[in-house]
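Retro notes, structure queue

What went well: the backlog is down to a handful. What didn't: a couple of records were mislabeled last round, so from now on we paste the full input next to the output in the thread. Example, using AMP deaminase from Cyprinus carpio:
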Amino acid sequence: MKTNSASKNDYSIRNILHPTVFISKQMTKLCISTDDRTRAIAERVFASETKDDDVRDEISLFDVPDDCPILNQELAQHSMKKVHPNLIFNQSLHSKKYLRRTQPVLEDKPTYLEVPHFQRVSITGDYAAGVTMDDFELACKGLYRALTIREKYMRLAFQRFPDTPSQFLRKIEGEQWKPEDQVLPVFTSPPKSGEDPFCTKDFPPNLGYVARMKDGVIYVYKDAASADKHQPLNHPGPDLVTFIDDMNFLIALIAQGPTKTYTHRRLKFLMSKFNVHEMLNEMEEMKELKKNPHRDFYNCRKVDTHIHAAACMNQKHLLRFIKKSYRVDADRVVHVLKGKEMTMKELFASLNLHPYDLTVDSLDVHAGRQTFQRFDKFNAKYNPVGASELRDLYLKTENHISGEYFATIIKEVASDLEDARYQYAEPRLSIYGCNPNEWTKLASWFNKHRVFSPHLKWMIQVPRIYDIFRGRNFVPHFGKMLENIFLPIFQATIDPNSNPELSVFLKHVTAFDSVDDESKHSGHMFSTKSPKPEEWDIVKSPSYSYWIYYMYANIARLNQLRKERGMNTFQFRPHCGEAGAVTHLLACFMTADNISHGLNLKKSPVLQYLYYLAQVPIAMSPLSNNSLFLEYNKNPLLEFHKKGLMVSLSTDDPMQFHYTKVILHPFSYVQISYFSSLSSFDLISVNMPLQPRCSSSEKIHFLGTNYLKDGPEGNDIRKTNLAQIRMAYRYETLCYELNLIREGVMAD
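Corresponding output:
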């Protein structure tokens, strides 16, 4: 019964998408309205995700069995077309298509220099084998449109879309790809020797613009009169109706039977091809690395792209700092309880504690098996010895001592990174959206304590806890929360001198993150019928996709304004795919420059293949996942790496998961568990500095002058210690897969 139902769904999806999947060669014509039947399918897919795990179909709309059989009925129909006397004409057409596809897609000769000879894995013959021609073309057209959707939203927010997929999309559209057409983020260059990173001079002048929120998005107006008439400046941004149409199309695509079958087979092929490549060329890659002077795994630049500032130290570091602060400041007033000031000695006495007796075990900040599938218990681990008072004192930017201890701890972590020389990090600080003064207070903390290091960049994380704030009447509706998050930044961009400390801080901020427990399901499907943020006044939090869209929409318009003013722009890099529905990954495929975790990609072959084709960066944290959502031996990190997804390693929360003070800790676990080759280590570490928001001069220093180019041409082995053979293999394989899509789309 369940299998028949799934087949019926696949058949209806196929009938809907087949006549309209290849819309046009022009990007502007891709955003058509989705009809009611497609929207109904998207709603049915969403409903299937809301079921409990114990009542889910054994094979869901997104899952594919390991053997992935083609339906016998489809194969029979495909065979009949070649023998039925009434289908001779169809047989002729299919034969021509087959003959055209027997030619190799790529030549065996490389088109670049300085790549040592290595053994290539070449596949000849009909490269659509395993699926029918109709299904092959249908899948390719759907994948093509999905890539154009991501490219559109990346360009809108000044986020990078790789050159190689962009070049193939232009070929499909019959256009010439030009390097100058590529949209890139705007970076803040590091201060030169002798320059003050906290300098408040040389800000651009006040433009006199007015910023106001309408329907959950901040718009910029020339003056108050224009704002009253809602006549905003021409800063492009996403359109809600178009976004919903694009999202519904992608929901239907990832549930489409032929596309699931095709992408599943391609991913299996990529895994097998890598295993053969590694078996044939591992020694040659090692020979390359041994010939490379000075550079090895340890002195390649590594950037921890996913680390939370409140847990950026290991537990021993925190314990030493607590004991040291007690020895030095025992009589200092550090806390206020019910209007009464308390010294540190009195605070610890009220908790029946003495720092001398504390140990790493009694500190109890390390996550273990007791936190598995318990996000609430994990959050409690931020409280040393279970005392929220100590968290406020040591791990908060806003307290009675103005976050002095927290700033000191972070500067000690930065000092360790500087001593290691080749290690960098992007700690995340929180903005909650509870009131508009949060930005001013955070910027004041940053400037007052001078929390700057050339080895640190900063990210802003926004916890999705609207339901808590609304339940306590801190905000009247969701729109007010968005306004508190984004309006102060718009105002500081329009007139930097109105809040110079915030303007200085924003120069060192690289991106925004969206964080919380993804396993919490809201039950709300984001659609054009959803209430506007100003109308969302219930206590329940909006869905993940709702959050993602409105954060992205504001970031995109903010980036338009900041680029116009010559300021740095921001990326959108949310937590995604750690738990919850795969539709989270779909929303971030459309909007996010890169994501953290991405575990649930293993549940959807279509999305996994799209993340590969678009080379969406994924910062994975196996040690974190092991204590929260997925056991270490089930982590898909190695599988994703073999298939060619752009994965990197990150620490997430060293205080909870790590025992050392350097970011090499997760590499050691990967080596022990997966026995990865040295070239794999180098590729993962090269992906680390490619993901964050470093300036062009920094990336040239880290990766070489051609870092923006794809493939071996962009790889400087003297800086990356990454074998050219491995880069050539990755580049050729990606081009092969993209060329398959080009052939399938242009078959007509």
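Agreed that this is the format going forward. Reviewer comment attached to the example: The chain has 30 helices and 13 strands.
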